[in-house]
Amino acid sequence: MTETSFQYAGATVELVDAATILAAARVNPVEVLRKAAFPEPVRRVELTVSSAEVAGKPVHVFAAEISTAADPLSKERIRALVLGNDPVGLLLAKRIEAGDPVATRIVDGVGAAAAAAYKKLGLDRSAQPAAHREPATLADAVVGLQASVTYDESGTIVRLRAEVPRDDVQPAHLQAFVGLTLQAVLELTGPESLSGRRYVISREALPRVATTTATVTLDQVGGLADVVAELRQIAVSFRHPEAMARWGARRPQGILMYGPPGTGKTMLSRALANEIGADFREIRTPEILDKWLGGSERNIKQIFRDARRYRTPTLMLFDEFDSIISYAGSGGDAASQAINAVAGIFKQEMNDLIEANPNVIVVATTNFPHRVDDSLIRSGRFDVKLSVPKPDEASRAEIFRKMIAQLRSVHEVSGFTMFADDLDLAELGRLSLGLTGADIKEILRRVQLSKAMQDARSGGLVAPISQDELKASVAELLG
Q: Residue 13: in which H helix or E strand, if any?
């Protein structure tokens, strides 16, 4: 993990692993400024890095929102205040969500009266709006970054936005945008207001979006600390070719991951691609092996011919590698000869792939490493070989913790608690002996489904998922 510290208007800003932030933003929006305190009248600053298509071209988008207003009395906020967390409030919230017009009119009528009372008493004026201002531009001449500045009608929210082509974006652009955001803050708070303050710009580990296999990051992988640490090192070596060249070092060209089914090998490959900020290209057995004479050889040659032309970082995954090249060198029938030919071409292509195209990294996964010929996976072709074992007790508890934290981040809202507060994750780790990460995900899926069915049948309150329910789901899966 790399950290850059710089001074701005007397404040110290720590920029943590900017290259990883930019890489992760290609997959999910990344919130990079959290739990930061700003001088009055600024109450909140949000800073996000994301990816978008503009005029048909991929760009990184830097966006900031600076608010001088207290939590506004929006309709949603008023409803939350009126409904509260008591059983009646939760029941009304359910009815409103289901589209009940009577409940909606009742709550919105009470809310309108509350809002009128707030305004009459002057309680909605915690921050005086600034005079109306026209859109403007802030610029950093060092990196050539320009940010548009707009103001909402009330004058209490300032928004900054800048775009940088994906192929050109650098950590310096993120640093520059942070500086422009602080410059906008200074215009609201005064020239000396940031002196002595400290701000940390880092990646949000749990994005408030449902994580899929395609969007998973290494931060969200539980129970495989050593494997994750190794993959982080590989990602750093991929993202910093200038440092590698300076020392004459060669980053790994290929990675072999092996272990039992369900331990997360494919997920780790996806997470590595997202950590690098690379496109993900998965090659499966049917894409290579062909029943026609010479077809398999043509297919594998075309796959590597395409790989040499990739102009963006790309991770190529050969999943179930043993099924493509297993038992190379054995057998005399036509199928064995085709596999042997594919294995021979694979060896040749891997000999100089990194020199032909440094944008490509190859990952192969297998449940049966003994079926893969040693010559195929020797160093120089597959430099890193990672065992991905079934998780031990502590690792299973960690997997439960991360999966539950992610579900809470995505689904829990005001008035809705998904999991009980007294969960004993160590006990769950102990009870789930022999289970994999995929099994633990299934345990949670079954409990979620059961709760959703209870909710659908009752149309009312359902208690949060409890320790006993999770234990029962573990026992059910273990049979």
A: strand 11-16
Q: Based on DSSP, count helices (H) and strands (E) in the chain, helices before strands.
A: 17, 14
Longest Cα–Cα distance in the chain: 91
Closest CA to 251 of 353, 354, 375, 365: 354
Domain locations along the chain: 3-70+129-201, 75-121, 213-387, 393-478
CATH number for domain 213-387, candidates 3.30.365.10, 3.40.50.300, 3.40.250.10, 3.40.640.10 = 3.40.50.300
Closest by CA to 433, choosing from 396, 383, 468, 463, is 396
DSSP E strand boundaries for 337-423: 360-366, 384-387
pTM value is 0.62
Mean pLDDT split into 10-residue runs, the chain, 479 residues: 81 86 82 82 91 90 88 48 52 58 58 54 46 80 92 85 93 94 92 88 62 72 87 89 88 93 92 89 84 82 91 90 64 57 87 90 92 86 93 91 87 86 92 93 95 86 92 93
Question: Which helix (H) or strand (E) is 91 found in, with range?
Answer: helix 87-97
Query: Is 184 in contact with 64 (CB distance < 8 Å)?
Result: yes
**Distances 295 to 22, 302, 338, 341 between C-alpha atoms, Å:** 40, 11, 9, 11
Round to the nearest angstrom and report the end-to-end CA distance of the chain: 43
Strands 145-151 and 44-54: unpaired
- CATH 3.40.50.1100 for domain 393-478, yes or no, is no
Task: Name the one residue in this structure whose structure tokens are 């409030």.
Answer: 89
Using an 8 Å Cβ cutoff, are 261 and 326 in contact?
no
